[in-house]
Amino acid sequence: MSEEQIKDGIPPKKDSGDEVKKDFKGLLGSVRMFLSELLEIRSNTDAAATKDSIIADIPFKGHTSWILVCSIFIASIGLNANSTAVVIGAMLISPLMGPILGMGLSLAINDIDTLRRSLKNFTVMVVLSVITAFLFFYLFPLRDESSELLARTKPDIRDVLIAFFGGLALVIARAKKGTIASVIFGVAIATALMPPLCTVGFGLAIGKPWYAAGAMYLFIINTIFIGLATFLVIKFLRFPMVRYANSQRRRLIARLASITGILVMIPAGFTFYQVFQESLFKKQAQEFLRETVEVYQFDGAGRYVDNLTKLEYSDDEASVIEVVFMGDELVPDNVINTWRSQKEQYSRLKDVELHVIQGGKDDSEEKFNYVSELYEKNKAELMNKDEQIKLLEAEVAKLQFSVGKQIPFSEISREAKANYENISELGFSYLIKTDFKKLDTVPVFEIKWNDGVRNNQKETDSKKMLAWLKLRLQDSTLVVKEVE
């Protein structure tokens, strides 16, 4: 402070830097308090009620078993009919979550009896579901491989994330004082436990065990990650551990629960990593195909059949990208070699094998019957899609014709009455006629004249009206007919 300020008696100012630090600390404290109030869930948790409600939902007997059977039937019908709405309805009424939540809870609180009961009922649930789905698809005459069914035969990274975060949402909702029902219903839909079980039954019923294996793998992944989410939330909320009178038994059970939890988490982590790697491979493979194969232009009769493309990921062996071309024109070898060079630019595709199958040969000199076999395998699906496209095109054509031929009859009738005062009635209809070579639809106007109008006047007015209507409606095919 200067001597002048001391002489004048001016008080010294506080250090502005200290004030800024103080304000900043206050801001951080406010933000911390806000986030704590926003995200804190322990204070509103009812541990005893949550534990009791989860344990109560574990058993599968009586009403619960019949509800499960009915929901599996409904889901199987929905998958068979390719109806997402029906499948969602089945998931809403299914009681599948009980044993899975029970396993996560029991591992978190060292409750070996609840774990044993959960595993028993989980096994009953899976067996009952698969048998029900198997009987439906085995006895039901229509066994189309719908897209809803095929989508449940192989998991990807999104299935893992949905199961984990769905499990988190579910157990947090169950732990809250006053359960949030909408969350429970939403998780039942999002985690989609039922469709894979139905697909297992479908695969066994049609004699394709690899379908069943893929669907069961997806179901197990969902189960593990829902259980893992339950375990983590219960641990975070610090539910009280189960106490045993015998200290040795308590320590043994605690060790068993910990070992079981670790054993569950190891395959969960491995599965997550494997599925994540496969998803990254497929993403780069699809990007590679979009930038190379899909943009290739044929000069003649050749085309890329994108729905026959196969992306096969493998941890141990080389992964494969297989593309199929049909038609007489072949892709030149130099173009294929260019594609292989471009493939090296993608970090996850460097060691991937690119197989190009086309026409009468492929670059690995496999026989053409492989293409035929591949085509026959997908022919049913292609024909079904072609039939749907033709049906939709026919419907669009009908709508376009209907719109194009639409007659503003109310306006026409008012204008006709204003221009021709002798009209008594005016009618309109479409007449379908043929010359046995083609069908024609002709718009016909029927006119009834007032009594007392001379014939030559009727004939003159009819001709004028015909000319006016053709000009007014821009249709040279319409007909004016006089009726009595």
Automatic annotation (TrEMBL):
Keyword Membrane attached: yes
UniProt keyword Cell membrane, yes or no: no
InterPro entries (alphabetical): DUF389 (IPR005240)
Entry's transmembrane regions: 64-81, 87-109, 121-140, 160-176, 183-204, 210-234, 255-276
Positions in coiled-coil regions: 375-402
Annotated keywords: Coiled coil, Membrane, Transmembrane, Transmembrane helix
PANTHER family per the UniProt record, alphabetical: AT15442P-RELATED
Name used for this protein in its record: Uncharacterized hydrophobic domain-containing protein
Species, as recorded: Flagellimonas zhangzhouensis
